[in-house]
């Protein structure tokens, strides 16, 4: 047989096949132009990859137009076959083999994927889903992929975080005899300091589950507050023996104005009051017996009862050693 005859025979065979296909679609499936034969989901030997078969009409000359007309949704991972080609304009049988659907719950966020991979490990690699550190999946990496399965990924993260915290300043008190009792003053204002604390924090799926302090560093040293507390006497500002009274008040930490008031009530400020035969004598009107006892204990033993300095210091001593009842409670003196 010549080459020319072989070519003729091949052309006849091809033409016969084309005519048979045209007859099948136009004569069998498209006799009624008002209807479209849709097979839909077909039985498949592979449950992971459901198969759907549809029939596209001949007036559409591309696959996208046929699928749009059929209202069929396909995804990039699905595999599609057409017979004959849609571009031939004689209609096509469209076979869609769907990829396996896999739901992934990753750190509490769920996302749907489609794949042709067969194991969890290869699926994660395909989708660039990395497991780092202590991350884990609820199925083994070698587990088989099953349609509509759920893979749960637990994300475990350990990070170091730094936090600033204030350092409270301390309040330091200092007594000052030169400041009147009951008064205070601020000698130095307090300023809080600051420290930086480093924690190792563990989070599971974004939620903190543990925290460990690993370092503390003082960033700013606090400035302590210094408060001066007055313990000194109230000084008299006028009258006889003012300086001596104030000196005795300072030594025994008593109210100098009250001491001055008592002296004025008792003797009018006269050191010789009661001289020579009075029962009570001197600035604070001592009896002879009480004077000998009190002046000796105050460190003025043997001093004259008319000695102004001895009377002032002895009285200051007596008032601070439980002897105050020896004098009447003169009105106004205790309020000085």
Short description:
A hairpin with an 8-residue loop joins strand 1 and strand 2. Helix 4 (242-252) crosses helix 5 and helix 4 (242-252) runs parallel beside helix 7. The protein has 336 residues and is α+β, with helices and mostly antiparallel strands.
Helicity range of the residues? 25-40%
CATH hierarchy class name of the largest domain: Mainly Alpha
Counted by DSSP, the helix tally is 7
Span between termini: 148 Å
Tell me the domain tally. Answer: 4
Q: Give the low-confidence spans.
A: 11-16, 22-38
User: What is the β-strand count?
Assistant: 14
Q: Looking across the biggest beta sheet, what order are the strands in?
A: 1-2-4-3
Name the CATH architecture of the largest domain.
Answer: Orthogonal Bundle
CATH topology of the largest domain: Lysozyme
């Amino acid at each position: 047989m010549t080459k020319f005859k072989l070519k003729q025979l091949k052309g006849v065979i091809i033409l016969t096949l084309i005519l048979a296909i045209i007859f099948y679609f136009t004569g069998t499936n498209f006799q009624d132009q008002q209807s479209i034969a849709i097979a839909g989901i077909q039985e498949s030997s592979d449950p992971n990859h459901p198969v759907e078969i549809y029939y596209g009409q001949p007036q559409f000359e591309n696959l996208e137009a046929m699928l749009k007309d059929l209202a069929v949704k396909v995804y990039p991972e699905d595999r599609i076959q057409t017979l004959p080609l849609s571009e031939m304009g004689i209609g096509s049988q469209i076979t869609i083999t769907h990829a396996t659907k896999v739901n992934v719950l990753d750190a509490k966020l769920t996302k749907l994927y489609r794949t042709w991979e067969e194991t969890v490990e290869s699926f994660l690699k395909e989708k660039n889903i990395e497991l780092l550190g202590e991350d884990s999946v609820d199925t083994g990496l070698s587990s088989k992929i099953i349609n509509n399965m759920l893979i749960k990924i637990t994300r475990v993260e350990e990070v170091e975080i730094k936090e600033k915290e204030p350092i409270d300043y301390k309040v330091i008190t200092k007594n000052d005899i030169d400041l009147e009792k009951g008064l205070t003053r601020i000698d130095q204002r307090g300023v809080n300091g600051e420290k930086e604390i480093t924690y190792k924090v563990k989070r599971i799926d974004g939620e903190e589950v543990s925290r460990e302090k690993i370092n503390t560093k003082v960033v700013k040293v606090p400035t302590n507050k210094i408060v001066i507390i007055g313990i000194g006497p109230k000084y008299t500002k006028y009258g006889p023996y003012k300086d001596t009274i104030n000196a005795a008040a300072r030594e025994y930490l008593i109210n100098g104005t009250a001491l001055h008031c008592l002296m004025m009530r008792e003797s009018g400020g006269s050191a010789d009051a009661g001289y020579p035969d009075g029962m009570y004598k001197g600035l604070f009107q001592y009896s002879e017996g009480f004077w000998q006892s009190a002046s000796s204990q105050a460190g003025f033993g043997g001093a004259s009862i008319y000695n102004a300095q001895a009377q002032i210091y002895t009285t200051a001593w007596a008032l601070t050693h439980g002897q105050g009842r020896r004098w009447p409670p003169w009105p106004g003196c205790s309020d000085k």
